């Protein structure tokens, strides 16, 4: 069913909540200031009888991995979360385990009709620890079936954790799984595992190589700075290569390169694939070819003309995934970025929001490269323990080289997510005037797939050089923006999450555009981490501003300009939940009208459940 927009039924509303200078904002500020003063006095009285606040190290750091908790929230006043709120937060079509903690995606692959996802998992608790490999399978990357644990910490070389790894499928269809284990002496080593029965489509049983570990930290590398081997690629000399992250002299992020002919014996090459000073420890490195025609994905071992290579690293210092595109020399095993000013760790991000530890695989079934990424919680561990689960994976995304810009990837949700689409509603050329909000009449707004295109009509001429990026959020007004959507908002706009474009006048007379998400008013709860995310996005001369937004309860994934810039957000509203959640357009620019055309689908829930072993088929 497709409905249309009636402007008489959806009159524009002026939006003082989006305007710094409105009287209502001023009155609120005065009230808030008084409240802060009273709370400060109370805190002073309480602190006289307490010990000074002690800084708490994030969970996981002492064990030699990236932070897995938000200790900065410990001194916030706990919100009184209800079970109904916790139930609403759980996603409906993103992959997550039935219960407990999950983090990095591991070893994704396609085998005998099934997509396999392995993932870092704590089978005992909703906080990080006891890390094993969870395992699930799917026919379509959307509907998932949980399987028994694939790898557990049961040998001296992985007894303190079965950490991140990657799969390599050999030409004879053998599957090689290399993963990092933490030994009984807290040393990070690389281990080999393989299916016990390659004819089993579900790959239920895995064997660990008796000669593990197959790689140990080389001289000059600390025992806790050696992790996360990539998928291997075959060089022109018939030797396999792989890379993994580390650091040198505490600040230089590096990717080591190993050669092997049998996946049991490895030779460390002199030098590194690449290094970037000032970026710190690299983990979850990914390295793969991209076709510069932008139309096809490539197997990981592809080489030759018309091919560039992408190098991605997850930066332990910042918890951000960065990438760059460049040239790989398979003779010297060196990689050089196209643009040194946007090298790995200092330029492009895979995702500008809450996102980490991404990993791709080449899907030989549909000839595409598929990207997974981990989205963790931004609430407290106390809340996670109460609800019994933590973290989810993004919707799998296809990745291609953007041959229009020649500088970046294009990421897009896999086509299978469209199978969840239910009824749709069209909104054509909806006028949104400066400082106004327009309600969009959608029955259910917590599970949506939104395609939106915006045209701007300047009302004034401006040549002022505007400096900034996403600013202080959607309240930060400029001539041409911000404008976009308010998702998961309540009717009074007391809770809302703006997703928006912010074009700014540049010194050369052009517009420099930022794509942003503002979480600062997404929830009234204080014990939730909220910030403004975003980055630059290229909008070419023949393009209107366009975005695609996937809304799934507490996870929102936003794609600008066909996926040039992507932002993932976690939001925890207290009032804008269930039937109280609304969707709006907004324009907080001072000098343009915005016309918006949208197509919005409500989405069904995915079937994500245990594998029905009692049945013959699924």
Layout: helices, strands, pairs:
Blueprint: E1 2-4, E2 13-14, H1 23-47, H2 83-89, E3 100-111, E4 114-122, E5 132-138, E6 144-151, E7 162-169, E8 175-182, E9 188-195, E10 206-208, E11 233-234, E12 240-248, E13 252-260, E14 267-268, E15 274-276, E16 282-291, E17 307-315, E18 320-329, E19 334-337, E20 356-363, E21 368-375, H3 381-387, E22 389-390, E23 392-393, E24 397-401, E25 409-413, E26 421-432, E27 436-440, E28 447-458, E29 483-489, E30 497-505, E31 511-518, E32 532-536, E33 545-552, E34 555-560, E35 565-570, E36 582-587, E37 592-603, E38 608-610
Parallel strand pairs: 1-26, 3-22, 6-38
Antiparallel strand pairs: 2-27, 3-4, 4-5, 5-6, 7-8, 8-9, 9-10, 11-12, 12-13, 13-14, 13-15, 16-17, 17-18, 18-19, 20-21, 21-23, 21-24, 24-25, 26-37, 27-36, 28-33, 28-37, 29-30, 29-36, 30-31, 31-32, 33-34, 34-35
User: How many strands in all?
Assistant: 38
Could you report the average pLDDT, rounded to the nearest whole number? 91
- 3D shape: globular
Major β-sheet annotation? 7 strands, mixed
The low-confidence runs, each spanning 5 or more residues with pLDDT under 50, are 20-53
Helix content: under 10%
Strand order of the largest sheet: 1-26-37-28-33-34-35
């Amino acid at each position: 069913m497709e409905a249309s927009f009636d402007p008489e039924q959806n009159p524009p509303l002026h939006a003082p909540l989006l305007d710094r200078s409105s009287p209502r904002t001023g009155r609120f500020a005065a009230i808030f200031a008084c409240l802060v003063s009273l709370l400060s006095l109370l805190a002073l009285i309480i602190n006289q009888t307490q010990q000074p606040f002690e800084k708490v190290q994030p969970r996981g750091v002492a064990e030699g991995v990236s932070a897995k908790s938000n200790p900065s929230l410990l001194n916030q006043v706990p919100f009184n979360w209800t079970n109904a709120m916790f139930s609403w937060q759980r996603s409906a079509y993103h992959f997550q385990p039935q219960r407990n903690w999950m983090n990095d995606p591991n070893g994704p692959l396609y085998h005998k009709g099934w997509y396999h996802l392995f993932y870092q998992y704590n089978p005992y608790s909703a906080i990080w620890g006891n890390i094993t490999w969870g395992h699930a399978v799917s026919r379509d990357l959307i509907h998932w079936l949980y399987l028994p644990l694939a790898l557990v910490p049961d040998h001296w070389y992985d007894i303190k954790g079965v950490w991140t790894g990657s799969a390599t499928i050999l030409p004879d269809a053998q599957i090689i799984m290399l993963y990092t284990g933490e030994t009984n002496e807290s040393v990070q080593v690389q281990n080999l595992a393989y299916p016990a029965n390659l004819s089993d489509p579900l790959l239920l049983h895995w064997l660990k190589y008796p000669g593990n570990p197959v790689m140990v930290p080389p001289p000059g590398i600390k025992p806790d700075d050696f992790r996360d081997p990539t998928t291997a690629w075959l060089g022109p000399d018939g030797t396999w290569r792989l890379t993994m992250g580390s650091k040198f002299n505490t600040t230089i992020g590096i990717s080591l390169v190993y050669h092997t002919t049998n996946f049991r014996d490895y030779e460390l090459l002199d030098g590194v694939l690449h290094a970037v000073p000032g970026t710190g420890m690299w983990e979850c490195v990914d390295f793969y070819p991209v076709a510069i025609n932008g139309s096809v994905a490539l197997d990981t071992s592809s080489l030759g003309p018309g091919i560039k290579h992408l190098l991605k690293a997850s930066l332990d210092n910042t918890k951000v995934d960065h990438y760059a595109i460049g040239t790989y020399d398979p003779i010297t095993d060196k990689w050089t970025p196209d643009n040194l000013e946007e090298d790995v760790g200092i330029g492009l991000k895979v995702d500008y929001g809450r996102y980490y530890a991404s990993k791709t695989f080449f899907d030989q079934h549909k000839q595409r490269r598929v990207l997974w990424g981990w989205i963790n919680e931004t609430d407290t561990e106390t809340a996670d323990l109460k609800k019994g689960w933590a973290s989810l994976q993004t919707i799998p995304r296809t990745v291609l080289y953007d041959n229009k810009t020649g500088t970046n990837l294009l990421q897009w949700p896999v086509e299978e997510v469209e199978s969840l689409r239910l009824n749709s509603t069209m909104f054509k050329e909806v006028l949104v005037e400066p400082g106004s909000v327009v309600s969009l009449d959608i029955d259910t707004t917590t599970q949506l797939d939104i395609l939106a295109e915006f045209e701007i009509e300047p009302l004034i001429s401006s040549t002022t050089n505007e400096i900034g990026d996403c600013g202080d959020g959607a309240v930060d007004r400029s001539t041409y923006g911000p404008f976009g959507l308010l998702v998961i908002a309540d009717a009074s706009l007391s809770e809302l999450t703006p997703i928006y474009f912010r074009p700014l006048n540049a010194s050369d007379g052009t517009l420099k555009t930022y794509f942003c998400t503002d979480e600062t008013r997404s929830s009234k709860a204080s014990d939730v981490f909220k910030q403004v995310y975003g980055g630059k996005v290229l909008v070419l001369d023949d393009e209107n501003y366009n975005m695609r937004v996937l809304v799934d309860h507490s996870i929102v994934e936003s794609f600008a300009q066909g996926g040039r810039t992507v932002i993932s957000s976690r939001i925890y509203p207290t009032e804008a939940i269930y039937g109280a959640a609304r969707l709006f357009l907004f324009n907080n620019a001072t000098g343009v009208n915005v016309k918006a055309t949208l197509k919005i689908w409500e989405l069904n829930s995915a079937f994500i459940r245990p594998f029905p072993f009692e049945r013959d088929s699924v």
